[in-house]
Specification:
With 169 residues, the chain is of the alpha+beta class. Helix content is 34%, strand content 16%. Strands 2-3-1-4 form a 4-stranded antiparallel beta sheet. Helix 2 crosses helix 3. It is elongated. The C terminus is likely disordered.
């Protein structure tokens, strides 16, 4: 059974960590806990599967990166894992993962995301990637984003549900 303080902790982190040098200390202060206890409890909640993951959401547009593209490759499944590991090492690759193909309409099985300040920069980075990973012989497509979707983490307690870290008893 989950303890009430853990529910409060989940509610406190679901909207994102405070931007501070010690965000867990600020959360600990809000919940009348010790900073190490917050870290320990979050780790335990993750191990139990009650929190899926803690990660960073980068707001690329706020940093001046106005162009991004999902690049999809069709390559032998036996190479996809190795090539994905190589591709993910490049500083301009934000995501790289393998997915199943979907017939002739969607023959791609390796996906990577490139962010750049301009469309031209993204295309330059893609050319560099293709050349340095010997990807010239693999069919690929470039899917530039047309709009920016809201980026957020998991929502464990919907807004307006009556539960938040401020509603402590």
């Amino acid at each position: 059974m989950i303890e009430p303080i853990d529910l409060q902790l989940i509610a406190a982190v679901q909207e994102g960590l405070p931007i501070a040098s010690r965000p867990y200390a600020l959360i600990a202060e809000q919940l009348n806990l010790d900073e190490n206890e917050v870290i320990t409890r979050l780790s335990k909640l993750k191990q139990q599967g009650l929190i899926k993951r803690l990660g960073v959401i980068v707001k690329h547009r706020r940093l001046g990166y106005r162009s991004n593209a999902m690049v999809v490759f069709d390559m032998p499944d036996t190479l996809a894992n190795e090539m994905g590991q190589r591709i993910s090492q490049f500083h301009f690759i934000n995501l790289c993962y393998q997915r199943p193909r979907h017939g002739e309409q969607w023959p791609y099985n390796l996906f990577c995301m490139i962010h750049g300040k301009t469309r031209e920069k993204v295309l330059q980075q893609l050319s560099y990637l293709i050349e340095n990973c010997a990807l010239e012989n693999y069919a690929h497509d470039i899917l530039f984003s047309r709009r920016c979707f809201k980026q957020r983490g998991a929502l464990y307690f919907p807004r307006g549900s009556g539960f938040s870290h401020e509603n402590r008893d």
